[in-house]
Amino acid sequence: MRPSGRKLDEMRAVVIEPHVMKHAEGSCLIKMGNTHVLCSASIEDKPPSFLKGTGLGWVTAEYGMLPRATNSRTRREAAAGKQSGRTQEIQRLIGRALRAGVDRSALGERQIVIDCDVIQADGGTRCASITGGWVALRLAVNGLLKAGTIVSDPMLDHVAAVSCGIYAGQAVLDLDYPEDSVAGTDGNFVLTGRGRMIELQMSAEGATFSRGEMGELLDLAEKGIAELVAAQKAALA
């Protein structure tokens, strides 16, 4: 039934390759099917000005797509002179999601910037960015701990994200672009490794959905998150 031939509750193949950038404090390349995102973490020794003197750290994110990440060339946002509303919304989501998994007091007065650059897009780029961004963040924090710069691990739990939706009247896990572009209901689910919810984004794209369908999508998301957390652990092993 699905264009890819996958089962309703089947994820795309997930591969997370760590340490792909020489200079970044943490980095990985995450592949979720044909969606590929390069994630890096950069440590800055001072926090944003609004946190100065608070003892709290900060995690934020920037997101972008290469011009030929999609079927037709997309103009670079730098050439246009501004970020699109979509880009701003996605990078704010990534930052919120990753901060939820961090004890900012243990991090201390410093900022970690997560850069997520989409090399190839086939649906679910924000979810791949969050999942890969967490691995890059974990690697950067590992470096701080190893150097003795911080003494307590600020990472509270794994954070991962997956999309689910109603496609052709059926609840499906991990939408690729052919499904996402015509789904009646589309949702992005950000959860911790223990199953705690960070953010749920659901919208009726072509048809309304029931509470029962919402629960069905959440069940699928929990299954997908468990698989993504396992992939994160494997990449860090």
From TrEMBL:
Its top-level enzyme class, in one word, is: transferase
Please indicate if the UniProt record lists Nucleotidyltransferase as a keyword. yes
Record bears the keyword rRNA processing: yes
Picking any one GO molecular function of the record gives: 3'-5'-RNA exonuclease activity
GO BP terms in the entry: rRNA 3'-end processing; rRNA catabolic process; tRNA processing
Task: Give the E.C. number(s).
Answer: 2.7.7.56
Q: What reaction gets catalysed by this protein?
A: tRNA(n+1) + phosphate = tRNA(n) + a ribonucleoside 5'-diphosphate
What keywords are assigned to this protein? Nucleotidyltransferase, RNA-binding, rRNA processing, Transferase, tRNA processing, tRNA-binding
- Domain named Exoribonuclease phosphorolytic is located at 10-140, 159-224
Q: Where does phosphate bind?
A: R86, G124, T125, R126
The domain of life is: Bacteria
> What HAMAP family does UniProt report for this protein, alphabetically?
RNase_PH (MF_00564)
Which family does the UniProt entry place this protein in? Belongs to the RNase PH family.
Q: What is this protein called?
A: Ribonuclease PH
Q: What is the lineage of its organism?
A: Bacteria, Pseudomonadati, Pseudomonadota, Alphaproteobacteria, Rhodobacterales
Q: Which gene encodes it?
A: rph
